[in-house]
Structure formats: C-alpha cells, structure tokens
Task: inverse folding
C-alpha cells in the first residue's frame, strides 16, 4: 500500500510529530524515565492517527481511480521570480514545527508537515466524464482525511468513557493535526479543499473545528451543533456571493 519513499516520509513525519507533542510531558520537573514513557505513548498515538488517515485517503483516492502519495511538505521558492527559487526543496513544515516547539518549550504546535500528491489512473478513468482528476475530486479525497481525524477522536472518547480512560491527549493531538493541515496554503490539504470548492472548505472547516471544540461535552450534541453551524456559514457565504 505504501511505497518505500512513503514509508520513509511517514516515519520522519511520525517522529517529528511525536517530538512536537511529546516535548512537554506536563511534569513540573524533568525526569528522563517519565519523559521517555510519555514519548512512547505519544508515538503510538501519532502512529495510529497518521496511518489511519493515510489508509483512508488512499482508499478514497482509489474510489476516484487515482493514487495518493504521501510526501514531506517542501517549499521550493521563497519569492516570485528566478531569484526566489531555492537551490533545493526546503522541508518548511518540519523546520517550522521544530523551531516553534523549541521556542515555546512544547507549549505551541505546528503540525502541517506532510502533503498528498494525487494522480489519476487514466486507463481506469476511461468512461468517466473527465479523464483528468479535477480540483473538486481532490478536495473530496483530502476532506476524508480531515474527517478521519474527527472520527478517531469520537471513537477514542467512546472507548475512554466505557473504560474510564483519559483520552484528552489523543483528542487534542487529532485536533491540532486537523487545525494546521486545513490551512489553505501551498500544497496542504486545506489548499486542495479551498481551491476545489470554497463551499466545501467552509463546511469542513466550521464542522470539524466546532465538533472538536464541543466534543468533550457531548458527542451527539457537538455533531449536531457543528453541522448546523457549518450549514449556516455555507448559507451566509452563498447568500453574499449571489446577492
């Protein structure tokens, strides 16, 4: 399912995100044993989150007769024109994540370290209205990845309540991964959704963020309120655009 390059990029991303979320273990004083145990715990959380999301995206990409390939988010230019092009791609997401983690001692996060390169399987798409994968299809595919993080959070809360476990770290981890990956910048998932459909972007943004903010109180209530808020925001945008 994953190419050799993808496995390397995924491992790098998982380790970086583990470091970002596990840097501050919440203890008043540093104890190496406690920090390492927390690091392993966060590593498992990140591993489950990232692998589940990537498998879901790959599955839905195949439903569109296309392939999703995970890659590190690299920046190739810092300015317009030939002088703005960098000699080699810069892993901007990883660098920003590490700098912010060190600068804030693990209090603030930046989690957008990877992107999804989507390519169509043209022979498989014969008979479709469009042979090439269009922007709206790309938006649909990566939107599922965003939703998968919310799904994981809901499942973890249900399990946590059933077994009386504290799953707040896992829920927060998924929230921060969504929050930064949905930014409509460069090749991030948020940009694919935004340029594929502004209506879908507004709906996904409002629905997922609102659901995450309210989900700790009540799952059903949070989903209903988040859905209504998303519909209202899309309706307001539609009204402004058309009137």
Result:
């Amino acid at each position: 399912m994953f190419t050799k390059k993808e496995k390397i990029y995924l491992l790098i991303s998982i380790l970086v995100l583990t470091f970002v979320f596990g840097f501050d273990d919440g203890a008043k004083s540093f104890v190496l044993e406690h920090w390492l145990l927390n690091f392993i715990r966060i590593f498992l959380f990140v591993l489950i989150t990232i692998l589940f999301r990537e498998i879901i995206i790959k599955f839905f990409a195949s439903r569109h007769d296309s392939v999703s390939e995970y890659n590190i988010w690299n920046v190739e230019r810092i300015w317009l024109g030939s002088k703005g092009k960098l000699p080699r791609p810069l892993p901007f997401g990883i660098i920003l994540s590490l700098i912010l983690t060190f600068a804030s001692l693990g209090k603030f996060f930046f989690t957008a370290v990877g992107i999804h390169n989507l390519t169509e399987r043209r022979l498989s798409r014969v008979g479709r209205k469009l042979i090439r994968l269009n922007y709206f299809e790309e938006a649909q595919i990566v939107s599922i990845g965003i939703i998968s993080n919310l799904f994981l959070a809901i499942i973890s809360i249900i399990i946590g309540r059933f077994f009386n476990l504290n799953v707040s770290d896992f829920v927060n981890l998924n929230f921060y991964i969504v929050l930064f990956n949905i930014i409509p910048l460069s090749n991030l998932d948020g940009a694919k959704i935004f340029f594929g459909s502004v209506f879908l972007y507004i709906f996904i943004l409002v629905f997922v963020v609102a659901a995450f903010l309210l989900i700790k109180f009540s799952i059903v209530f949070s989903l209903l309120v988040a859905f209504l808020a998303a519909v209202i925001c899309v309706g307001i945008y539609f009204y402004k655009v058309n009137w």
